[in-house]
Amino acid sequence: MSQVIEILENTQKEKEKTNEKKDETSVTIEDVETNVETKRISTHTHLKGLGLDEQGFAINVASGFVGQKDAREACGIIVDLIKSKKMAGRGILFTGIPGTGKTALALAISQELGPKVPFFPMVGSEVYSSEVKKTAVLMENFRRAIGLQIKEVKQVFEGEITEITPNEVENTYGGYGKVISYVIIGLKTKRESKQIRIDPKTYENLQKQKAIVGDVVYIEISTGVVRRLGRAEYLKDEYQLEVEDYCAIPKGDVNKKKEIIQDITLYDLDVANSRPKMDTKGDLFSIVGQLLQPKKTEITDKLRGEVNKLVNKYIDNGIAELVPGVLFIDEVHMLDIECFSYLNSALESAFAPIVIFATNRGVCQVRGTEIQSPHGIPLDLLDRLLIIKTLPYTVNEMAMILNIRAQVEQIKIEEDALEYLSKLGEKSSLRYVIHLLTPSNLLSKIAGRTVVTLKDVKECDTLFFDSKNSAKMLISQEEKFLK
Ligand SMILES: Nc1ncnc2c1ncn2[C@@H]1O[C@H](COP(=O)(O)OP(=O)(O)OP(=O)(O)O)[C@@H](O)[C@H]1O
Ligand SMILES: [Mg+2]
């Protein structure tokens, strides 16, 4: 890594020395960013958690969840066990007929665990890819579900920004305009003020944090990572913005050691170490230079082994702590016998997350074999799992779920229409009636109403079929369909 920051008065010779010592092939944890995948699953947006009370009992309607008390309480125990790190290497299976809230429960578990515990959702069919081996996909996802909390003491600059002065030069690469060669930043603590020089990359980080003069920031010297801590406290009266987060001006020196806690997953480490290191002597900003750098090398078992070794070392030294998270495999019946046998052994490995499976299948064939087995899962794996059942909903519960959904989707619906939908839900499925809400709302809007009435819902039901009705029609008109 090139030197990113320097104090103007004394250049950081020591840092350069440590950089030189770094072995090219050695595995490092520096500069690892968490690969957070943001997924917006609108089907479950009304759920905010499991809705349990302090003793762990399910409140009938809470956090968007209705009924299904036993399963929710069981999930509450699982959450406690995961948080106290007593669950690693175990498996849970949600079984139940379609639309009874299995996926919803798993997502509620992830919400209860909070952002510090990794939770990685996948669907059984994701393993089938023509490019990557099935077990490699599973292995990768296993590692995404294992977190590592690393405590590091880092050398940082911390203080209130007193000036930001970019130094611009002519673009020497033939482009138009000017480029920033370095930026001078003034930082002030209670004890002293200092000017430091940062490179354009660090300046970019500063801009991403939206840090301006008067903000308190810290800048990690080795990586150039910038964090904005808040606006300097004494400026409170000046701006009078209530939303601002203020923080005290740091005491002590501008250049100091700070304990920084970083949450990453083993997968983040694999990726960071498979990325070839930029040649520090080469030109980082030349486009040709970047093109010539191979983007990624493959994550091999050897590399994973190296990462594991390093992680073990850090754990032994007390620098890092393992945080086994959750790998959620929905529609687990889609996996085949090779995946199942891999899972058996992976669950027993030293670094194993908690694996939660969900399926709506009864007794069926295990993919890749002729064997019939409950839920399409081989008996030896099934034997290792704790099973949580979800039960069908009553009409009353369906009405409550529909009501919550209507609120989330901002749909006003009349009492008798809701009642009709819930009764319909008992005959067809919860999912079908939830899906009918939006089109019914559309019909009512077309008719110039703002509230969904029984007429809209009935009309909608005649326009669409649920799976059972559709299957009935198929049978009655079998001879007319193409075979
Ligand atoms: N107890 C509940 N409270 C509130 N909403 C629920 C509840 N159970 C299910 N839902 C909602 O009903 C819909 C269907 O539930 P979900 O997708 O979890 O079913 P599933 O058991 O995973 O079904 P499948 O087996 O078909 O995958 C979702 O929108 C879900 O958020
Ligand atoms: Mg599901």
UniProtKB/TrEMBL annotation:
Stored Pfam families: TIP49, TIP49_C
Chief location bin: nucleus
Keywords for this protein: ATP-binding, Coiled coil, Helicase, Hydrolase, Nucleotide-binding, Nucleus, Transcription, Transcription regulation
Chain coiled-coil ranges: 1-35
Identification of the protein by name: RuvB-like helicase
Keyword Cell inner membrane: no
EC number of the protein: 3.6.4.12
Subcellular locations according to the entry: Nucleus
Lineage: Eukaryota, Metamonada, Anaeramoebidae, Anaeramoeba
Source domain of life: Eukaryota
Organism listed in the record: Anaeramoeba flamelloides
InterPro entries: AAA+_ATPase, P-loop_NTPase, RuvB-like, RuvB-like_C, RuvBL1/2_DNA/RNA_bd_dom, TIP49_P-loop
Catalytic activity: ATP + H2O = ADP + phosphate + H(+)
Signal peptide location: none
Location of the AAA+ ATPase domain: 88-392
Family note: Belongs to the RuvB family.
